[in-house]
Amino acid sequence: MPISFEITKNTRIAQAHYHELAQQQMRPLSRKYDDREHELPVEWIDWFWKHGRGGPKNPDFEGPGDGFVQVCVQAEELCWGDAGLYLRMPTAALGGSAVAAAGTPAQRERFLAPFRGDGPPVWGAMAITEAQAGSDSAAIQTTAQRDGDDYVLNGTKIFCTSGESAALHEGGFVVVWATVDKSAGRGGIKAFVVPAKTPGMRLVGVEKKLGIRASDTATLSFENCRVPAANLLGSAEVKKAGAGKGAGDKGFKGAMATFDASRPIVAAMAVGVGRASLDFLREELTRLGVRVRYDVPASALGAVERDVMDMEAELQAARLLTWRAAAMMSRGRPNNLEASMAKAKAGLVVTRITQKAVELLGPAGYSKKLLVEKWMRDAKINDIYEGTQQINQLIVARRILDYSSSLLR
Amino acid sequence: MIDFDPSEEQQLIAETVKQFAQNEVRPRARDCDEAGKLPAELLQEAHALGLVANAIDERFGGGGARSAVTGALVAEELGWGDLAIALAILSPSLEALPISDLGSDEQKQRWLPALTGQRFRPGSLALTEPHYGADPLRPETRARREGGGYVLDGHKCLVPWIEGGDGCLVSAACDGEARLFRVSRSQAGITATPERYMGIQALPTAELVLSGVQVAEADTLPLAGDALPRLIQRGRVAQGAMAIGVARAAYEIAREYAKERQAFGAPIATKQAIAFKLADMAIEIDAARLLVWEAAWRIDEGLDAQREATLAYRQASRIALEVSDGAVQVLGGHGYTREYLPELCLRNARGFTCFEALSLV
Fold this sequence. Notes:
The complex is a heterodimer. By secondary structure, chain A is α+β, with helices and mostly antiparallel strands. Helix content of chain A is 49%, strand content 13%. Helix content of chain B is 50%, strand content 16%. In chain B, helix 3 runs antiparallel to helix 8.
């Protein structure tokens, strides 16, 4: 196949579908659940659970034809609607990705079936971050001790997206990353599926945040929290540090592989928020009679035109890097470098674009009457979660320099 | 379906050009810049690769494989080798492509074979004007009808004026509509003064004063409708791709230098201050390349590319400058010397904001 920038008909159908959904179901609730942080956005959740899970009803729609590019397009549209509500959707989310990537067919069936079922809404979540282990996931302190047919988890996880919903609503689960052997370093880190309401898992609290306030970000503690050994994702074998690369080390690598898959999606989410802001800005400028001209010499351009052109170029650049990383995923190619490039670029670009939109719109942009200020607050998280700007720069740097993580720290 | 992989044929062409750029162009970049001279034998050798002819209709001696995407791949590799030499190598297309797109069969028969034949024949296109606020879409150079032909009066600059060329396409407005006029370089009324620029020093360019230059009706090309904007879009894609090439050249040198250069007992690339700068360069280069490719793809698909070509070119020229500057910085004092290439990349990159259709795809 030659170079092409044309999304398939299938993806266009998905794009139109999710755009309409975003506009009709999410936008009207944006301000409400930004104001009412920590309140469950019930209208959205009920609607999504009843009508939103099926995808486009269009008879021409054939499911995920464009693979990950289509997933990215979908994420972009929904986050154009509202990034906080997107994160709060009752889905298996990152926990689901971990189960799908590292779980056995039996585990996938067991843990993911409720997300397709007719019961009440359920959530999945992923718990990696700890107070002293953020980007440095290998420093995880939460322990998992084997006891007969069970593992016993002890520790505290923070910044767990949808952690509250996943831990408290029957049928959901939290994928918890813990070490079975601290002396083994990364090789000792394993992932465990902890079903909702498992005794010993406790919601400690939820964060008050700059943005994405409709999304709950939980602190979960695990005190002698017992899960069956069958809930371990991947191999139980512990590879000692320095034992070399190879199979068996599905724990830490599994977590990292999840990031390669999730980073393009987070980048797409970022692009969605940035586009919300830029679309609105352009509509306002059109209303005010400010036209962006692409056919005049640079010397004739006004400052606002220049700003808008740069915002457009940067946003499209981020989107294309994202689609590239996604297209590589779809073809089963390693995309660690490209995923980090996309995430680094998108996170930074949308932070700048949304800030610029507030600036250009003046007091109106700063006002809570509009959503522009909210998009600026929402956008910032994209430069932080799923690997901060700096972590992604570090990954890119190691790749382009061909340096190991011990050589470039 | 979204796809970022060039076709097999495109990969083959890009790989061939890459080898040529590496083995033949790059080793001459510094000397040519210092001497302010093009390597004549090399231009002939490059011409033999058929890069210009490939895009021309088979009926007029070409390969019949016109593609802006392929053109962008070629332009990036050559630009990576050296910008001035790249512009010279591809200069026949400055005439060949507009003639191919806009000319009558008679004109194509008359002009194309010389440009696409065995011998390298430099081409020239005069769009840029020297006054402040000059707009390539609205030339101030005038053509008035006289007798059965036209008379041109005006002023152009940054016109490639390579030894051995005999023609030049000049844009001028006639009754409010732009046209291209093919003039002969030695024609009465044309005064060509050699120019000197901060960069692309190996490429001879001229400032032209046109005073009562007579052109026959048969030597003009119409630019009706969106022909001129499309010509300029093709220029922006070609130059954008070259800008990526320049940026990539500077970035790669900085990256290798940073891995060699020791400070405090370790290569400076092991310091985040340097490593992150290199990472940002790599990200920006890839991002801008995708924008250029998208604009090229739109041109090939016959879609409007005004916005995309303009944005891609703005982005590519900006990052070429930033990355070249960053590379000079990574090399420190060495970066400022003419012993290393980043300073040449920086001088070349600065020009992109004033280049217009110095190359076409």
